From TrEMBL:
<comment type="similarity">
    <text>Belongs to the ATPase gamma chain family.</text>
</comment>
<dbReference type="InterPro" id="IPR035968">
    <property type="entry name" value="ATP_synth_F1_ATPase_gsu"/>
</dbReference>
<dbReference type="GO" id="GO:0005524">
    <property type="term" value="F:ATP binding"/>
</dbReference>
<keyword id="KW-0139">CF(1)</keyword>
<dbReference type="GO" id="GO:0005886">
    <property type="term" value="C:plasma membrane"/>
</dbReference>
<dbReference type="GO" id="GO:0042777">
    <property type="term" value="P:proton motive force-driven plasma membrane ATP synthesis"/>
</dbReference>
<comment type="subunit">
    <text>F-type ATPases have 2 components, CF(1) - the catalytic core - and CF(0) - the membrane proton channel. CF(1) has five subunits: alpha(3), beta(3), gamma(1), delta(1), epsilon(1). CF(0) has three main subunits: a, b and c.</text>
</comment>
<dbReference type="GO" id="GO:0045259">
    <property type="term" value="C:proton-transporting ATP synthase complex"/>
</dbReference>
<protein>
    <recommendedName>
        <fullName>ATP synthase gamma chain</fullName>
    </recommendedName>
</protein>
<keyword id="KW-0375">Hydrogen ion transport</keyword>
<keyword id="KW-0175">Coiled coil</keyword>
<keyword id="KW-0472">Membrane</keyword>
<dbReference type="GO" id="GO:0046933">
    <property type="term" value="F:proton-transporting ATP synthase activity, rotational mechanism"/>
</dbReference>
<dbReference type="InterPro" id="IPR000131">
    <property type="entry name" value="ATP_synth_F1_gsu"/>
</dbReference>
<feature type="coiled-coil region">
    <location>
        <begin position="249"/>
        <end position="276"/>
    </location>
</feature>
<keyword id="KW-1003">Cell membrane</keyword>
<dbReference type="Pfam" id="PF00231">
    <property type="entry name" value="ATP-synt"/>
</dbReference>
Amino acid sequence: MAEKLNVLKARIKAVTSTHKITKTMDMIARSKTAKILTIEQGMRPYTQKLNRIVEELSHSDMDHLHPLLSPKKTIKNIILFVITSSRGLCGSYNTKILDEAMERIRHHYRHGRTVELHVLGKKGEVYFEKQNIPISRKYPRIDEESTFDDCATVVQRFMHDYVVDNASRVEIIYTRYYTRVVHIPKIKSLIPMIPDEEDIEGRKVKKQIDYLIEPNIDDVLKEVVPLAIKTYFYFMITSSFLSENAERAIAMRNATDNAERLIEDLKNKANRARQEHITNELLDIIGGSEAIN
């Protein structure tokens, strides 16, 4: 009986230690989520409006005026940029995005296209290496602290590859943040920009193409189009990191709650075992006393 009690005490100690870790990670994830959410909410209206203008121009008779708005006649080479996490303990975040990426890769292979895979995040790197899918470029320097300029450098290479016909399309697979509990993997054509059925906030888009551009449309598009592409790429990076930390906060909160319930259950078992041990000792004493008498 004493041995059973010692085992329960050891388990309580181990689970309590785990509880402290998960609770701390939950607090850290919540703090990071709040910080990144402030950034994401601040850039959302600007990104949404700029993105909508460029996407509508791409479906007007102005698309021929800028090479980044003009779709290629033949789709052969795809640059696929997949955003995963570098750390675990974030629920099904990586599983969902990697499943989406694999399905997209198979889709392009079925259509006879080549895929140049770019991966952000160690989890994605490890996964694709196990799948024997070659990774063209990794991005270890892009993280939650990366700035707009850091991300713009990446997009600059994509735009160059598209203009010189090294790529027929640049696609981004990322996780869009809607609420603290809703994060959905998305596929976005970054270059050329193709309109979505819904905007950044998940509302149905009403297409309205009616622009009067002054003083010179060529100069305006030359500045606006690259800026819009860079801005939306940075938004997708931010949304993915936001979703990752929100998923981690949920996972750690669930783990903390489970640990608390397990600790309570183990304490109840330990108390019963202790009472049973004391009762047995009392019975032994009483039995011995009666035998002497």
